[in-house]
Input
Amino acid sequence: MKLGYWKIRGLAEPMRMLLRYAGIDYEEVVYEPGDAPNFDKSMWFDVKFTLGLDFPNLPYLIDGDVKLTQSISILHYLSAKTGLFPKGSNPADISRYDMIDHAIEDFGSCFYGLCYDTTPDNFKSNKVAVVTHGKEFMKQFSSALGDNKYFAGDDITGTDFWMFESINRFVKMEPTFIEHDNLKMFMKRIRGLPELKEYFNSPESTYNWPLNSKYAINTF
Output
């Protein structure tokens, strides 16, 4: 199995967390842009259309004959492959978890828009508005989680790793970002998973990579 992405946490980190939690060995295919001012990306563009991907993009997953792009699709595939999906779910339940995944994607877009599609001055002036908007999502996420351990109840799924990483981005930017007790406990619960002890503590872990690419206004 190969997972290809830039040498950042970015969109691929929830997949890396899931694979480490599940104990799945995989090959990390890393693409690292050049330095300023051009930030050369030829190392990716030179191979982009040679990998047999239907919709070439990063991140990508290659697992035998299975070749996927698009973050949520990869996350859903890995969740199903590793058994990290809600047990006994019906179509309505599955659609609800899919809905949460897409809401997380919208939530993350607020962060990325601030970090990439802006200038240093605009970053400072727009940060408060983006954090405020992010907290509106957090209120909805808190309601969706309720008293459950995870977003599918007692069953940990790919959605939980997607959520953890997305919230953690905002915490890197604004340490007091989490205001809801159940989300604070959720984040603590994920960090305390024995399967992820090495992931969170090893100096070699991708968890120590920057959140954003070197051409972002702030890499965090």
